[in-house]
Amino acid sequence: MNPGLFPTVTISARGEQRLRSGHLWIYRADVADVRAEAGDRVVVRDPRGRTLGHALFSDRSQIALRLLTFGEAPADDALIRRRVESALEFRQSLAIDATAFRLVHGEGDLLPSLVVDRYGDYLVVQALSQGIDRLLPMIVSTLQELVHPKGILARNDPRARLLEGLEQRVDLLSGEVPETVGVREGGIEYDVDLRRGQKTGLFLDQRENRAAAVIYAGGRLLDCFSYTGGFALALGRRCRETIALDVSEEAIARVRQHAARNGVAVDARVGNVFDELRGFERLGERFDVIVLDPPAFAKNKAAVAKATTGYKEINLRALKLLNPGGTLVTCSCSYNVNEATFAGIVQDAAVDAQARVTVVEKRMQGRDHPVLLGVPETYYLKCFILRKLP
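Request: output the structure for the sequence above.
Response:
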């Protein structure tokens, strides 16, 4: 293609500074001129017309550009393939003790808005921008060649696609994918519904935090927001009693199924965690280990104030229910509540609970979900392992 005809987007001086600081995103407010179509790979130019790099362009999202390369290096199919190969090689090097894990983590693998998860012999992909959606056939072909899966499913049903003007849908892209797929995480086995399960089927980002929390397991365990029972199953083998709570009847049915499959005794209950924690307090119940792994309370900045109230409430109740010397594993997957803010919320909860609490471990999402420095949005999962002092 004639370089003069290559799709281009010119950005403001503020946008240029954002790229030079290491971020990969340019917002629509910093776009000065567009000569491109939806989903194009474009040359990004500064206000003086100099090339800054190459990016994926969206004509609908507030994130107008997602940078692929900085400088003159082209963002061609060969680059996408090399990035996929690099991501796969990194996962291989981790020697993960599981058959389900993330192969490509978007910006963390310099493939913004692309997610690829492995579940045994099957892959699940998500294309979360116009640009990656257009590149999906090429990406699927690359994955078939490099991974040789029995089937590839597109879980293109997140609401984020609506912001891109893309349809929410689930499609079989190659091979066959059964209704449920059996996977293993450490010594725990799961049956995963890849078409209807949360995220792409399981919350894969908590795998290493579950393994770390096992060290502190014992006595009486309460697993809140249990979903399919990840923490309850991993820790329950070392506890004399395990209670798992979730508001979803379907999730609790899956917890019971997984508990039976793995020979772990779990009292799985359907209930609203906020109500149940207050109920346990009224009854004078006490626990030795409590896990709080709620869904994202703050999916945008406008929700942070309400989320803060929610996080404080559940941490306050949990600390009151915790025996002296007990362990609280508390998590937040809300990017908009950063680590310092989350720590402050937990501290406020400890003060109100009249509890002295030490931080035993500070953790984050698993290594297969890497954080890219300069892109704080890639650091979203915070996990504190805390001890209530006697």
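The CA atoms of residues 203 and 230 lie 9 Å apart.
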